[in-house]
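Figure 6 in text form: structure in, sequence out.
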């Protein structure tokens, strides 16, 4: 039950058994159980965090994107909780003070008005750690835009904590002077987030450019260098962003999920990004060069509207030294009886055989109706899948304005960056669910 707001870290040994890797602490007899405020969506996101790299102590960070905080005047801003592991008791988690402030204000024509809107921003919808660094994001954070009249654009924002939560900084790459649906106004930065092994931050913003979506990379040191809460519009040095492509890529949601891995045989990791409504809604997952953000490989979904790319994860599943890719398609339907398809969800495991070459996927198909398997990022060498028992999985949803934002007649810019690589759906696009 969602209103019990309990999270059971039930580390499913399913994948481990199938591929013969070793799991760790797969304790289904005595799981650590944490609880959070009722209705806060406590457990929506999770990651492990090691406070001291020299000590073998692990904690669990748990996002609760509808939690209330002590921020004055903010309703359900969302929070991330710090939980000791193993749990001493169910109530052992504490909110991490990423942001204690109210909405910042600005003066427009002599009157003070909010610059931003943190209520219902879904902070904690995503949380990721990398050594001493933690990032957590609020994809539905809105700001009033640079326009004179002001609007409310869901650009999203993230907060970084470093050195065991001794310092915090905000990072909102889509809060830019490129608003509205055609720009970054509906970006929802931080809808997905990850770190490369060297600590570079990877941020997905699936709503930019008429919901084409985008992926952004940035160094954490560069975010912190010269950081000021007053710098509302800030271009961080060294930041990279995928740009707008042709309008045929509208509504594809690049960056709905992100991960990183090594797929070219060198030591510079590539980005992996889910595009669950791309490829005529078959969905695809792109491997993206981290140096120039070019698309260098695609995996394409097999069933329309299955949300292939809803989640992605990378780990060396079979221990051969090559990173492998796991893709979730939670709305995949089993069609044994064409008259009554069953939405069971499917996970695809692509083993890398050589740089940018992958074996046909191993399939894990759900057994329970509407189970909606969600992959979580693998921890070190172990693949973990986390399941919320009996819970219909909510999702922040990619925000769309109430009035239809049909793309206006605007010429495709000849200076636009090259379009995403073409994809090859495995079936004709005529099959509609
Ligand atoms: Ca590489
Ligand atoms: Ca492998």
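Output sequence:
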């Amino acid at each position: 039950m969602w209103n019990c707001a309990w999270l059971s870290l039930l580390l499913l040994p399913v994948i481990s058994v199938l591929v013969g890797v070793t799991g760790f602490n797969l304790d289904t007899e005595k799981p650590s159980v944490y609880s959070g405020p009722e209705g806060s969506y406590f457990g929506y996101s999770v990651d492990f965090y090691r406070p001291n790299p020299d000590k073998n102590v692990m904690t669990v960070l748990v996002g609760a994107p509808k939690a209330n905080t002590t921020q004055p005047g903010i309703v359900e801003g969302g929070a991330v909780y710090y939980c000791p592991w193993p749990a001493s008791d169910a109530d052992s988690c504490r909110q991490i003070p990423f942001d204690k402030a109210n909405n910042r204000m600005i003066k427009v024509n002599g009157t003070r008005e909010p610059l931003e809107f943190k209520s219902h921003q879904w902070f904690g919808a995503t949380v990721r750690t990398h050594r001493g660094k933690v990032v957590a994001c609020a994809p539905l954070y809105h700001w009033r835009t640079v326009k004179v009249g002001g609007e409310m654009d869901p650009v999203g924002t993230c907060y970084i904590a470093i050195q065991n939560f001794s310092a915090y900084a905000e990072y909102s790459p889509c809060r830019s002077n490129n608003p509205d649906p055609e720009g970054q106004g509906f970006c929802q930065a931080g809808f997905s987030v990850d770190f490369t092994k060297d600590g570079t931050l990877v941020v997905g913003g699936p709503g930019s450019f008429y919901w084409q979506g985008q992926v952004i990379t940035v160094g954490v040191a560069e975010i912190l260098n010269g950081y000021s809460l007053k710098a509302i519009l800030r271009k961080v040095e060294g930041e990279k962003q995928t740009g707008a492509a042709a309008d045929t890529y509208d509504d594809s949601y690049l960056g709905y999920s992100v991960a990183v891995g090594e797929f070219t045989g060198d030591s510079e990791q590539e980005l992996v990004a889910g595009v669950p409504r791309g490829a005529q809604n078959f969905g695809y997952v792109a491997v993206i060069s981290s140096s120039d953000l070019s698309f260098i490989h695609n995996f394409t979904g097999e069933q329309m509207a299955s949300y292939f790319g809803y989640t992605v994860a990378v780990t060396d599943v079979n221990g051969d030294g090559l990173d492998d890719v796991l893709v979730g398609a939670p709305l995949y339907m089993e069609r044994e009886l064409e008259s009554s398809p069953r939405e069971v969800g499917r996970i695809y495991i692509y083993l890398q055989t050589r740089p940018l070459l992958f074996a046909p996927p191993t399939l894990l198909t759900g057994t329970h109706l509407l189970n909606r398997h969600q992959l979580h990022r693998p921890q070190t060498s172990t693949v973990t899948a986390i399941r919320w028992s009996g819970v219909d999985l909510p999702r922040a949803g990619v925000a769309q304005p109430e009035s239809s934002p049909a793309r206006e007649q605007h010429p495709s810019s000849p200076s636009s960056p090259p379009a995403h690589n073409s994809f090859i759906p495995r079936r004709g696009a005529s099959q509609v669910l």
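Caption detail: Residues 1-25, 377-395, 409-433 have pLDDT under 50 and may be disordered.
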